[in-house]
Design brief:
Chain lengths: ~250, ~325
């Protein structure tokens, strides 16, 4: 039996009195591309952040590649993981943010090399070679020594993707990667992501780009009010939604 | 179409417009010039300045010794301030509530009382506790010393100025660290970087832009603040000239000697300070040609993170 890449069961998370995730069940197979759609405030970002432990879940469990995330079960009890283990688990998961969050004091290539050299203790030569190959792959080979603020938003986001890929993650999380971009720059980032999907990378993508979902996603998940309302192949969820809330949302974004 | 003709504006060309006059500006300038001329006149003709005395003492050896004391006191007190400031800032940003409260009280106390009072307090510490001992509270003591022998005027000065400075530096450092976008920490975490590494490689270098320039102004303030130590009989620049005029009664000329020296040193520091500020202004933009404007753009972009096409050459 092949283990799913992500297995989230009954995941709950609150911020104070506000329950943001009310029991999320989601399984993502290896090589699968899942697009999460949903209105603002439905908990999409929170869920991605829980998978990467930028937030700590309060109920349920998340497994990534068979490993329990953020906790350790032993002797019938569950314990929080320490910083070292959390850090180790995060290395396997890449994340791309809406605001890029490139390191402004590093050049493009330094941004990409920082984690492989500093965290995985790779040699600079090896890390640099892979960084250059990744820049080639995202179409920015000529920007190696630029600083982030000298790049357009679309270029910055592609560097951010390359930076995440440099850690050779098993799983990539994208949180609205094109929402901060001017419309004419969205295409280049989506094209890069489509390339990754075609290469077989497992991806969870939160986006409002329904066209991308239709073309690239293996499965579309619709979230609302902290629960998954509907899930299925793009053709079903996008073109023939069963749930009235999904229908209402799609009629607004399409 | 008569309506349009009636409402079309008269034919005017602004090219030959007369400039607006500013008569008040002229009046103010003339008054300022007259006042300045009177000041120069006073400096030259008033014999009480005794410029010959000023000249005689300006290069005197005792004055030089006082300047050296002032300078090294500035350096040491500033070092104590920076190191203490780092510790207090760490406490302020700590997850540990006790550390937060203790460091908050520290800042509250040292910023809320005059540094002159703090100096005198340290100097008179022996009145509060004649012996200082280190050991377990209510338990055995490992080390004891006579306070009067331990707290020399120099140590009192360093403690008074340095611990006070630590409170201000803590706030500068804390502000600098907090002005770094939290997204930077998240991005580093997501890459699997440890907290320590994130701080050293990502947060601190970006915070330095906000920490170093105000620290430069703190050095200049500290140089001037060291003159307060004359009240605890430490022979800095001010105390030295006071000792001389207490004997010779040439109060004004000797104070002028001190002022001129303070001005010389602060001017040198100001030049250094402006270099530092320009360096960090450039650091914000890297290689970009119009560094000043890019610097402003950088500040703005922190508030509105989405970059626009106008800002992107290529
Ligand atoms: N750190 C936090 N503290 C308090 N409330 C939070 C926090 N993070 C998120 N929330 C709240 O949780 C809810 C879900 O937020 P989340 O960012 O997950 O929504 P989203 O589906 O990603 O929305 P959007 O499409 O606007 O990004 C929102 O009501 C938000 O205000
Ligand atoms: Mg979101």
């Amino acid at each position: 039996m092949s283990m799913p890449m992500v297995h989230a069961r009954a995941v709950r998370k609150s911020f104070g009195p506000l329950e943001v995730l009310k029991g999320i069940d989601l399984t993502v197979e290896r090589g699968e591309v899942v697009v999460i759609l949903g209105p603002s405030g439905s908990g999409k970002s929170t869920f991605l952040r829980c998978v990467n432990q930028l937030e700590t879940i309060e109920g349920g469990a998340i497994h990534v590649d068979g490993e329990l995330i953020g906790f350790r079960a032993s002797g019938g009890r569950v314990h929080h993981l320490g910083d070292r283990d959390i850090t180790r688990q995060r290395r396997e998961i890449g994340m791309v943010f809406q605001q890029f969050n490139l390191f402004p004091h590093f050049t493009v290539v330094q941004n990409i090399m920082e984690a492989p050299v500093g965290v995985r203790r790779e040699s600079r030569a090896k890390a640099r070679a892979r960084a250059l190959a990744l820049l080639e792959r995202v179409g920015l080979a000529d920007k190696t020594n630029s600083y982030p603020r000298q790049l357009s938003g679309g270029q910055q986001q592609r560097v951010a993707i390359a930076r995440a890929l440099a850690m050779e993650p098993k799983l990539m999380l994208f949180d609205e990667p094109t929402s901060a971009l001017d419309p004419e720059l969205v295409g280049e980032v989506l094209a890069t992501m489509k390339g990754l999907a075609n290469d077989g990378l497992t991806m969870i993508v939160v986006t409002h780009e329904v066209g991308f979902a239709r073309e690239v996603a293996d499965r579309v998940v619709f979230m609302d009010g902290g629960v998954i309302v509907e899930s299925g192949p793009p053709s079903e969820v996008l073109d023939n939604p069963q749930n009235p809330r999904t229908r209402a949302f799609l009629s607004k974004v399409l | 179409m008569t309506a349009t003709e009636r409402h079309s504006p008269p034919d005017i060309d602004v090219a030959g417009a007369a400039r607006t006059r500013h008569p008040l500006r002229w009046v103010a300038s003339i008054i300022l010039l007259i006042l300045a001329a009177q000041l120069v006149n006073l400096l030259i003709t008033n014999p009480n300045f005794k410029w010959d005395v000023v000249a005689r003492y300006f290069n005197a050896q005792v004055i030089g010794a006082g300047i050296i004391t002032t300078l090294y006191l500035t350096v040491i007190a500033m070092a104590v301030g920076v190191i203490g400031g780092v510790l207090v800032a760490m406490g302020r940003l700590s997850q540990n509530p006790i550390a937060r409260i203790v460091s908050g009280l520290y800042v509250w106390f040292f910023r809320g009382t005059p540094v002159l009072v703090q100096l005198v307090l340290w100097y008179n510490l022996s009145a509060l506790m004649p012996r200082i001992s280190f050991g377990i509270p209510f338990g055995p003591e490992f080390l004891t010393a006579d306070t009067n022998q331990l707290i020399t005027p120099l140590l009192a000065a360093i403690l008074g100025l340095g611990l006070n400075e630590a409170a201000y530096m803590a706030e500068i450092i804390r502000g600098g660290l907090m002005s770094v976008d939290p997204g930077q920490t998240e991005a580093a975490s997501a890459l699997g970087m440890s907290r320590g590494r994130t701080f050293r490689r990502i947060i601190l270098p970006q915070a330095m832009r906000f920490i170093v320039p105000p620290t430069g102004s703190q050095v200049i303030s500290m140089l001037k603040a060291t003159s307060l130590v004359s009240v605890i009989a430490l022979a800095d620049l001010l105390y030295t000239v006071q000792a001389i005029y207490n004997r010779t009664f040439q109060t004004i000329p000797l104070l002028i000697v001190a002022c001129v020296w303070y001005l010389v040193i602060t001017s040198v520091l100001y030049v250094g300070q402006s270099f530092i500020e320009r360096h960090y202004a450039r650091g914000a933009t890297r290689n970009a040609p119009q560094s000043f404007w890019s610097f402003l753009l950088f500040r703005r972009r922190q508030a509105a993170p989405a970059p626009t096409r106008e800002e992107t050459p290529s």
